[in-house]
Amino acid sequence: MSQATPQRFLPLDVFRGLTVCFMIIVNTPGWDTAYSILNHAKWHGCTPTDMVFPSFLFAVGNAMSFSMRKFSQLDNTTVLAKIFRRTILIFLLGYLMYWLPFVRHTDTGLEFIPISDTRILGVLQRIALCYCFASLLIHYLPKKAVWAVSALFLLGYWAIMYFFGDPADPYSLTGNAAIHFDKLILGESHMYHGEGIAFDPEGLLSTLPAIVNVIAGYYTGLFIQEHGKTGLGRKRLLQMGGLLILLALLWNTMFPINKKLWTSSYVLFTVGIDLWILAILIYVIDYKKQDRWTGFFTVFGKNPLFLYLLSEVLVIFLYFFQVGDMSVHRWINTYIFQAILPGKPGSLLFALLYMLLCWSVGKILDKKRIYIRV
Buried b / exposed e across 55-90, counting CB within 10 Å, b at 16+? Predict the structure, then answer.
């Protein structure tokens, strides 16, 4: 981590900030129930919440379009060291975050969580892997070759899922090829169990198409820096976004849009939506000069990975520490938020205030001009 004043591009900062802001809200509901817009699709389909993680990866690519400029002036060893150092750091932070607080409550007291019971992959781990592969491809291959590899990832993933999945339903929860691959490589005890079985939505195989979200974000970032403030540039973003959404909807009939499987149609759909969002932000901020509202979101946009990590670690400890026989998180929501606004409204109120807590930390960092690179 370091203190620096990175080059800024306001619409991209706001885009990152919107993504982190919404990510914290959807990840930290106060109760067992939440408004449908704040829930992931049960399986196939895409809700606004399903847009958060791919948009974060897209924003990582945007940031790379600035940070990778200096790579051309560095020797090969230094470039590889920078890429792998950042990859390992982000991956380890994600792994340790899921292991926190290293102990768990049992009937006889606290028990150390053995490494054999830890989840290996996750959100930060996927960010790390996607960043690593995207950086290597972009740095060492010409642009056309990078797009060719991206197409290979999307089409190859579709082929693997179709031919190696359950013939009856290759895109089902238990019959998809990704779950079998992850069980073989990772082992069930190192996978996510939130679906009731060992299935990791951030697994190894489904990381292949996710790399394309970062690559698309990178080239979009370059395009915006060169043409984003022009009318033609905004038009191109809208046109390409519309084309990708149309292709995704057509592909959806054969390879369903699915966040948990990170299907290739899902990649095209989310990138298309992100292009539309960026075009709107550029129009409002750069063309209409309506930027007074942006300050709130740029706080998140300037320290995105750090504030996301902070939000996750804080809530982990809210669940770990107990008041009587319930967690602090449950106690706060039972006796405060649910008492004030029962059900979904109280759940949303907690999520909003928790997001504002994380924002306040980001605001302090921004005032001190501290931008923490993870």
Answer: bbbbbbbbbbbbebeebeeeeeeebeebbeebbeeb
